[in-house]
Design brief:
By secondary structure, this protein is α/β, with parallel strands linked by helices. The protein has helices at about 20-45, 55-60, 90-95, 110-120, 135-140, 175-180, 195-215, 240-250, 260-265, 310-315; strands at about 80, 100-105, 165-170, 185-190, 220-225, 270-275, 290, 305. The protein has an eight-stranded mixed beta sheet with strand order 3-2-1-4-5-7-6-8, sandwiched between helices. α3 (about 90-95) runs parallel beside α4 (about 110-120) and α7 packs across α8 (about 240-250). The N and C termini lie far apart (about 75 Å). Bound molecules: S-adenosylmethionine. The site of S-adenosylmethionine has 23 residues, from β2 and α7.
Length: about 325
């Protein structure tokens, strides 16, 4: 009698694969799903367009950067806030510093819609509607309604909330020619926590275009308020897209060179450190600078005082728990 043929039934030690239990398979699949979800989210928010940004940055408190803002930069002025997110900083400026007008722009249209809705949180329940015989609940539930315009179809200047507008747009223009065609429209431009996202998504070309566009949009004597992220914080976001990775590796104009670039190449006359507002998370505690365009055509640099990362606590910020 010949021995039974086990050939097809035996497994050598090399080919032996322990069978995965359904529990193991399930957790592997769950891990994959979680990873993909994280990748999708990173991609969705690749512009720093976080929808809960102010929630985790400010925890319902007044933004600490507000304390170093000065009335003279805003009151009666035309202001642009680039990368306004859900509009809380823009709205706080519009309400407390009474600019003649302030436009918040953001690349993310959902954030712009949120910003428009957020206006209602800054209008007090007893807002003028009382005088007009509207119930307070109307303002609370629906936000402000249209106010009387003047004969030229304009709202009274500096009259919150009619001094604020939100617009969806990419501030980075597709060509240098378009940057050169910009007219002077603004007295003050806010560029807060934006540079990293422009730099990673559009590279050195994009950040340079953004700075030059800001300069061209400013009237003589106008101000740029700049809060830039540190280069070391770019690392965490560089792998979101292939383009971002390529841009990251090609960066020559490092953030610590922005101040020199803005003064020497773009043409701002002065640069002053405004402050490094405190924040419980060091990643959010960054220097804020004021760049001023010469009041006359003569672009003479009077004084330069800038400082970058000489403060050790600021240097530490790679250990941040939270930042953008
Ligand atoms: C981290 S948030 C900063 C929000 C706000 N400036 C602040 O500091 O409170 C960056 C914002 O810039 C917007 N953003 C990124 N690239 C932009 C672009 N090219 N044009 C307009 N907005 C942009 C994002 O959508 C996001 O809302």
């Amino acid at each position: 009698m010949s021995p039974p043929n086990f050939k097809n039934h035996t497994q050598t030690s090399e080919s032996f694969q322990p069978k995965q239990s359904s529990q193991q398979k399930w957790s592997k699949r769950a891990n994959m799903k979680e990873k993909n979800k994280k990748k999708d989210e990173a991609y969705r928010f690749r512009y720093g367009n976080y929808h809960q940004y102010y929630g985790y940055r400010n925890h319902g408190q007044m933004d600490s950067r507000m304390s170093c803002m000065k009335q003279e930069w805003f009151s009666g002025k035309d202001v642009l806030d680039i990368g306004c997110n859900a509009g809380h900083f823009t709205l706080a400026i519009a309400k407390y510093f009474t600019p003649s007008s302030i436009i918040g722009i953001d690349i993310d249209h959902t954030l712009i819609k949120m910003a428009m809705k957020n206006v209602r949180h800054y209008t007090t329940p007893t807002y003028d509607f009382e005088e007009e015989d509207f119930p307070v609940s109307f303002a609370v539930c629906h936000g402000p309604i249209a106010q009387m315009m003047d004969a030229k179809g304009r709202y009274p200047a500096g009259n919150f909330p009619f001094n604020v507008q939100f617009v969806q747009a990419n501030f980075v223009l597709p060509s240098d020619e378009l940057v050169d065609m910009q007219d002077q429209h603004f007295d003050t431009v806010l560029c807060l926590s934006l540079t990293k996202w422009v730099h990673l998504n559009w590279g050195d070309i994009g950040i340079k275009r953004m700075f030059r566009r800001i300069f061209n949009l400013l009237r003589p004597g106008g101000n740029l308020i700049l809060e830039a992220q540190l280069f070391k914080s770019y690392n965490k976001r560089k792998n979101i897209t292939v383009k971002m990775y390529q841009h990251y590796n090609q960066i020559e104009l490092l953030p610590e060179m922005f101040n020199d670039y803005l003064l020497k190449d773009v043409g701002f006359e002065t640069c002053d450190l405004i402050d490094i507002p405190a924040h419980s998370s060091q990643g959010f505690s960054r220097p804020m600078y004021l760049f001023t365009k010469a009041a006359s055509a003569e672009m003479k640099r009077k004084h330069v005082f800038y400082h970058y990362s000489s403060d050790s606590s600021y240097e530490e910020c790679d250990n941040e728990e939270l930042s953008d």
